[in-house]
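Amino Acid Chain and Its Fold in Token Form
===========================================
Scope: a single protein chain, as residues and as a discrete description of its fold.
Amino acid sequence: labelled as such and written in the usual single-letter residue code.
Position: the record begins directly beneath this header, with no further notes in between.
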Amino acid sequence: MPPVHDGDATRTISAPPSKRSLDTDPESSDANFQIPTPYDSGLSNNFTTSCDDFLNNRMLGSDTIKNCHPFSLLLLTSTGLFDASQSKIRITQTLEATCAANFTDCLGGMNSLARELITDSACKVDYDNNNAQVVEAYNGLIAYEPLYRASCLRDDEGSYCYANAVTNTTNDGEDAYPYSLPLGVTLAGGARPTCNSCLQDTMAIFSTFAGNSSQPISRTYSNAAQQITIYCGATFVNVTAAPLKGGASAATTAFTPTITLFIMFILYFFQ
């Protein structure tokens, strides 16, 4: 079942409205720009009939996908997002649409679609057979929260961190590489994202989800974090997953049943 986190450990930096708004930029009023959509180049036909129907109709036709503009699905599947990433204004408009969505409703909708995707009446056969696009879709659905929170981070000037990353041409786009970690994509061996507060805050978000084995980032975070510490410093990011909020320690968990058994043992002999 797709996990749900409260994500309180994340930090979203807000700036004054004058720095956040694009209304004064003439390019931002272009009525021809449309918010990118997932799988805008179409899906393959390499699916079972039930899965094809689910992906093309139930999932892509749902209000959740249409209204939430999920960054987690856009990132690896949308040519429109790639095109928007060539412009700081366009990618900012896209992120504003993503971040303006009702997070609670969208998270519930994305989790519901993920659960439905792996049912017998949808894509279970395809998923069990490791169909690449089906696994990609499932990962995009369950990774909604970590990528929503990461994509909505802003720097001290009010710019979206992802917009900065994807438009930074000084390091061949490597600042954007970490954003694929929650989708199960490993960080390229030679990648060196810029060691700034955006990278640090993004990895802090990801670390809070990396301890959940049902999240794809549980398989990609640790190696990426270790790689980043090599050139950003040993304390720049958590190398291991941060403890889940509210989780009991191993010692406490183990100690509780021991006390219970001891009390039962005493009562047995003195009754």
User: Anything to note?
Assistant: Residues 17-270 form one domain.
